[in-house]
Amino acid sequence: MIKPEEAPELSFPAECFDVWDWNGIDVTKESLWRDGQQHKDTVQARAARHFIDAGYDVVFDDDAAGEAADLICFKIDEETIHFSLVHCKFSENIGGARLQDAVEVCSQAVRSGRWLWKFKDLCRHIAKREQRLRSVIRPTRFLHGGSHEMNNILRASRFKEIQGQIIIVQPGISRENHSERQATILAAAHSFLTDTVGVPLDVVCAE
Q1: Alpha carbons 118 and 177: distance in angstroms, whole number
Q2: pLDDT value at position 109?
Q3: Amino acid 63: pLDDT
Q4: Where are the alpha helices (DSSP H) in 62-99?
Q5: Residue 29 falls within a domain, yes or no?
């Protein structure tokens, strides 16, 4: 009912960009699994390797209809359970200024914000997906860790602080050469997440 005299200027923080090396990755391919086969040169495969190498206790592939995120990753330290909702998206090529490279994945990131305050529901979601999505070709959705580690994480959540983050992995966005329209979309998603669930939007991208 009250209009602001000046519309707020949205900006995306430079420190929320994280540049990765995309050598050996076909950025036009998104999913780790497709047509019953595993593809290790995809954007999602690159992201999964990153979190496994970073020492995460669980890396779960939730990539399917009804997903919370493409990857859900958990790491426990002495005082905190860290979890990451990771949204991966392919691109026509590395870097550039295509608006669509930002729009869809930012929309997915915003929608996933509701999980940040529903940790136990997220753990139950993973358990149900592990049962429902398994097949002869793909007997588990865990890329690292498994149900045992998830049970340990759920028990630890009773007395440890829980910190969640939302990450988009999009090699089609360039930290140095992204367009003004891309920046606007990123800033809007970042602002929404910080205002509603209290976490920034982190963007993995190209140089």
Answers
A1: 36
A2: 98
A3: 97
A4: none
A5: yes
Query: What is the per-residue pLDDT for 35?
Result: 86
| Residue 70 amino acid letter | D
User: Is 1 part of a structural domain of the chain?
Assistant: no
Residue 172 lies in a domain: yes
In a domain, 100, yes or no: yes
pLDDT value, residue 6: 62
The overall average pLDDT reported for the chain is 95
How far, in Å, CA of 92 to CA of 171, rounded?
9
Residue 179, domain extent: 16-206
CATH, residue 114: 3.40.1350
pTM above 0.85, yes or no: yes
Produce one character per residue of 159-193: b if its CB has 16 or more CB atoms within 10 Å, e if not: ebebebbbbbbbbbbbbeebbeebbebbbbbbbbb
How many Å apart are CA 77 and CA 171, to the nearest integer? 30
Dist CA 16 CA 200 (whole Å): 8
Per the structure, how many domains does the chain have? 1
| Average pLDDT of span 82-110 | 95
